[in-house]
Amino acid sequence: MFKTLFEDFNPESIPFIWLIIAFLLAFYIAFQSFPTILYVAKERHLMDEPDGRSLHANKTPTLGGIGIFLSLIVVMTLVGAFLNTKVLLLVMGGLTILFFLGLKDDLTVLSATKKFAGQILASALLIIFTDTRIISFSTILDIDVLPYWVSIGFTLFVYILIINAYNLIDGVDGLAGLFALVVSGIFVYFFVSANDLSLATIAIALCGALIAFLRLNFSNTNKIFMGDTGSLIVGFLLAFFTISFINMAQSDDQSMYYSDAPALAFALLFYPLADTLRVFFIRIFIHKSSPFKADQNHIHHRFIGIGYNHVKTTISIVSTNFVIILIAFNLTHLVLNIQIFLLLAYGSALYLVPFGISKLMKK
């Protein structure tokens, strides 16, 4: 009976119920995992020690990524038989590589070289074996279709950029988690619209895991950080969603986002990408130091500096990024080059507004 039931079952006939179940399952697994992770971290003293750069005064567990990873793997394993098994297995493989690298870095120390090597391996698995890559610049700067190896190389660069840009924003309570939650929710909409239930399931499972994580990340008594374990796997998934969205749009000239996907993807990830570009510019050209040398020049540090607390900083940054996304959706009638130019202009201006208001209030 069960064999017949499973053979005849098609989740695409009940997509919304299916996605709700995936969301609830991911949330439940993460929710149940975090208390145990907190207990073990405290008992084994696996805590983040505040230093000169830290915005926290107390020792805090940094293993939140374990709960996120467990919930994603369980959901993908359970639903894999009904969806695109090849894609799910490769995503799970990439997540597993980055999970162990992040765990190693959280527990001891991992060299930047090994982290980059792991990111390249995990990203290359998906690019090559699923052939999910950026195949065109969509006439940006008058460049259209990319040669195969250029396409692979550029897509790999985008993966590494997004993973590390996301890692760099994990500096105040809730920022990385809430940002990823909002962006993943929008990707659920994109993938459902494209009838890709496999990617929609992964994206909504990530939403469920992040909500469970944020409950503790915002807590004053049982706080837990995402750590490199979490930021690597979440950044990897955001990169995978971004590349998949662009690839879907560019591969179908009937797609609603055929000409606009690069600008919309940029808008979704505007904050981490702009923040990384800004920090690297300051480090290289102003401080004359290594772009990888840690400092307190991130946008979230500036918000804290003008008197915002962690919650207000997180809500301000994520809300601003959401407004940037909404404006981008309303500019899709324009030529792509103009969309990107305007995105850079209004996106940068919107993040300056709180600082302008702060200066006016001090006068």
TrEMBL record:
InterPro entries: Glycosyl_transferase_4 (IPR000715), PNAcMuramoyl-5peptid_Trfase_CS (IPR018480)
Membrane topology category: Multi-pass membrane protein
Compartmental location: Cell membrane
PROSITE patterns, A to Z: MRAY_2
Transmembrane region(s): 16-41, 62-81, 87-104, 116-136, 148-168, 175-192, 198-218, 230-249, 261-286, 307-329, 335-357
Domain of life: Bacteria
UniProt keyword Cell membrane present: yes
Membrane found in the keyword field: yes
Segment forming the signal sequence: none
Keywords: Cell membrane, Membrane, Transferase, Transmembrane, Transmembrane helix
GO molecular function, a single term: transferase activity
Chief subcellular location: membrane
Protein name: Undecaprenyl/decaprenyl-phosphate alpha-N-acetylglucosaminyl 1-phosphate transferase
